[in-house]
Fold this protein.
Amino acid sequence: MTGAKIRTDWTMEEARAIHALPFPDLVHRAQTLHRAHFDPAAIETASLLSIKTGGCPEDCGYCSQSAHHETGVKATKLMETDAVLAAARRARDAGAQRFCMGAAWRSPKDRDMDKLCDMVQGVSELGLETCMTLGMLKPAQVARMKEAGLDFYNHNIDTSPDHYRKIATTRTMEDRLETVDHVRKGGIRVCCGGIVGMGETEEDRIAMLVTLATLPAHPDSVPVNLWNEIDGVPVQKTARPVDPFALVRLVALARILMPASVVRLSAGRTEMSDELQALCFLAGANSIFVGDQLLTTGNPAAWRDRDLLERLGMHVAPTSPQTANLAVG
Ligand code: SAM
Ligand code: DTB
Ligand code: SF4
C-alpha cells in the first residue's frame, strides 16, 4: 500500500464515482490511503499572520480584504519585520510548526522583496517552517523567495474553473495556475486548495479537486476552507450552508485523489462541531490552523484545539516533510 501509485490523470467520472460511494466505503478507502502515507493520529499545525491587510485591488467576491467591497476591514501598510518576528515567536511558543504570512495584494511589488526575504529568513531562524501568500509571483520573485529559504507558497484556485469567473473578474483561473506552476518549478513547495460554501455545486467542488489532482504534481498541501461569512461581500448573497457530510466527503475525495498531500481543514472551523472535525480527520484531514485569528476572521481558541486532540488521542506532529509528491512523474 505504501507504494500506492500517485496519479495525476484522474477523470471527473472517476472522481464523481468515488465521491458517491456509500459513506462507510468512502471513509474506509480514504483512511486506508491516509494510513499508507501518514501517521493517522498526527496533525500538523500552522499559524497565520496578515502582514498587509485590506485595500486589495482584486475583486474576489468572498474576501473581506478587497477594496471593491464595503466590509469595514481597515487597510494597513506592510508590517515591519520585527513585529512579524515577534508574532512568529509567539506562534512557535504556542505550538505552531509553520508560520504563514499573508498579504492582501494582487502581487508583491519588487520594492517589497527585500523586506519579505528578511521576514522569511528571520522566521526560519526561529525554527519554524515558512509559508507566504502574497498573490501572483513572477519566476524571478519565486527565485528570490527560494534563496531566502521560503518552504511553502500558498496560492489557492479557490473553486472550479467554471465557477471561478463568477467569483472574481480581475484575475482568471489560468493566472492562478500560472503562479502555482512558477512556484513548483522554482522549487518551493505548493500549498493550493479552495473554498466551499460560496454557493457552488457539488460538481464544482469535485471539479476543483480534480483540477488540483491533475496538475503536473499534486500540491504538497491542500487547504479546504469553509467560507467564513463576511458582511458586505458579493458571495454573501450566493452562499449556501454546506452539509457537514458533504464536507467530509470532499475531504475524503481529496485524500483519495492526492494520497500523499497534507489536507488542511482551514477556515471555518469555528462553525464546525468537534464531531465534524473528528470525521474530517478520519477522512484524511491532517493539518489545521492554530491561534485565535486567521487573516481577518476568527479561529478556535488554542485550548479548544488542545482539548479536541487530547479527547481524540491525537497529537501535534510534523506530517511527512519528504512529500512523496516529488516522485510524481
Ligand atoms: N491575496 C493573496 C491571494 O489571494 O492569493 C493571499 C491572501 S488570500 C486572503 C488567501 C486565501 O484565503 C484565498 O485564496 C482564499 O482561498 C482564502 N479566503 C479568503 N477569504 C476567505 C473567507 N472569507 N473564507 C474562507 N477562505 C477565505
Ligand atoms: C488558506 O487556504 N486559508 C487561509 C490561508 N490559506 C492564507 C486564509 C483563510 C482566510 C479566512 C478569511 C480571513 O480570515 O480573512
Ligand atoms: Fe485580495 Fe487575496 Fe482577498 Fe483576493 S483573496 S481580494 S487577492 S486578499
In short: Strands lie at 42-52, 98-103, 129-133, 152-154, 189-191, 194-196, 221-226, 262-265, 287-289, 315-316. DSSP finds twelve helices and ten strands in the chain. The chain has one domain: 27-312. The longest strand covers residues 42-52.
